[in-house]
Amino acid sequence: MERAENELEGGLANLIAFGKPFINNPDLVRRFANGWLLSKVFDMNTFYSPGEKGYTDYPHHNIDV
Q: Which of 10, 23, 62, 65 measures 20 to 30 Å from 30, CA to CA?
């Protein structure tokens, strides 16, 4: 997030995209807004495979942690 902000502010980019982080952090925007850590756990073996495994089964941030 910090790197993205620096590149935008420094004029190095007009747009920043977040690909993998959106897959394993279904609440990515809330994580950024609250300063919560991003999950780095994802199963690339399930990318582009049929079914919900690997797309809709990643947990949201546990705010009780």
A: 10
Q: What is the pLDDT along the chain (65 residues), one digit of tens a residue?
A: 789 999 999 999 999 998 888 888 889 999 999 999 998 888 888 777 787 777 677 788 886 44
DSSP string, 24-59: H-TTHHHHHHHTPPPP----GGGTT-SSSTTTT-SP
Within-domain flag for 3? no
Q: Is residue 53 part of a domain?
A: yes
Collapsed DSSP state (helix, strand, coil) of residue 1: coil
Domain count, the chain: 1
pTM score, whole prediction: 0.69
Query: What tokens does 36 get?
Result: 């919560």
